[in-house]
Amino acid sequence: MLNHFLKFSDIASGEIQPLLERAVELKAGATSTALAGKSVVIFFEKPSLRTKLSFWVGIEKLGGNPVHFAPEEVGLGKREPVADVANVMSRMSDAAVIRTFEQSTVEEFAAAASIPVINALTDAEHPCQALADTQTILEQLGSVSGANVAFIGDGNNVAVSLGYAVAGLGGHLTFASPDGYTVHQESLDGANAYGVAVGGSVKQVINPQEAVANADIVYTDVWTSMGQEAETAKRLKAFEGYQVNPELLDQAGPNVKFMHDLPAHPGEEISDGLLYDSRSVAFDQAENRLWAQAALMEKLI
Questions:
Q1: What are the domain boundaries of the chain?
Q2: Could you tell me how far CA 199 lies from the centroid of its own chain?
Q3: What pLDDT sits at residue 1?
Q4: Is the overall model pTM greater than 0.85, yes or no?
Q5: HSE-CB for 84 with a 13 A CA cutoff
Q6: Which stretches does DSSP call E strand in 199-238?
Q7: Which has fewest Cβ within 10 Å: 20, 37, 125, 188?
Q8: What residues form DSSP beta bridges with 151?
Q9: Of 1.20.1250.20, 3.40.50.1370, 3.40.190.10, 3.40.50.150, which CATH number belongs to 8-126+288-300?
Q10: Left if phi > 0, otherwise alpha if psi is -120 to 50, otherwise beta: which for 24?
């Protein structure tokens, strides 16, 4: 594995399963002092609940000291150049967790840093979410290999990282998105290449019913992500017919599980109450952010 985790494919596909197994061990009560005496910077330019909470608590569980910065405290690339911030943080801390907008920003930061850098979300990828997602699938199904996963909705950063993760573990992911909101072909090709050695695959379709047929997992995300608020009305119209609801789940496999990375917008991408449907594992998925990221930090730092 590379010293940084900036995109999901920074993990060799053969290293994903051991990392998830370690996350399961930590969740079951295994202890670690891997970060004892170490400080980890948490710097977010976007709002966060699960990501901030899971990293903060995870660092402490590993014996480390989390140091949080809000965007106005740093002014990354505005008040101070990205490389300068990376150099300062490298002199005084042992790792940096960055949540920002452009993928190029976190890559520029990592290029100048002499400490491990973790992408806690950019507009291009959300690799830590994908670790938690595949941990959840592993727990629910016993294996990601051979699993049929349907992702209904926007071909966004969450979808891209999930594609790499599922394919890299030998699973099969079908994206269902309306025209204009599909996963880019480059990402589809990349995920398929990443998973080819283990028989994993991803594909894009338009029809949600086609995607969920025989699915073990049905996953969705918000239709309008942070920074896209001006597009809300346009997106609500484009995604008509893409809501995940009990009726759509009924068309999937008999033991289907429902996943959502949260926050959710009931009445839009999901029907009211779906998070609390007996088939939903969304809150297990949210908790797994803590354990997957703890295993990641233990390995990197």
A1: 8-126+288-300, 129-286
A2: 22
A3: 63
A4: yes
A5: 8
A6: 201-205, 217-220
A7: 37
A8: 175, 219
A9: 3.40.50.1370
A10: alpha
Q: Is 22 helix (H, G, I), strand (E, B) or coil?
A: helix
Q: What is the pLDDT of residues 148-204, one digit of tens each?
A: 999 999 999 999 999 999 999 999 999 999 999 999 999 999 999 999 999 999 999
The Cα 138–Cα 146 span in angstroms is 11
Average pLDDT over residues 231-255: 96
Q: Compute how many other C-beta atoms are within 10 angstroms of the C-beta atom of residue 28.
A: 8
Encoded tokens for 236? 């609500």
Q: 176 exposed, middle or buried (CB, 10 Å; 0-12, 13-18, 19+)? A: buried
Residues 6+ apart with CB under 8 A from 230: none
207: which 2 tokens?
């029809």
CA 159 distance to own-chain centroid: 8
One-letter amino acid at 31 equals T
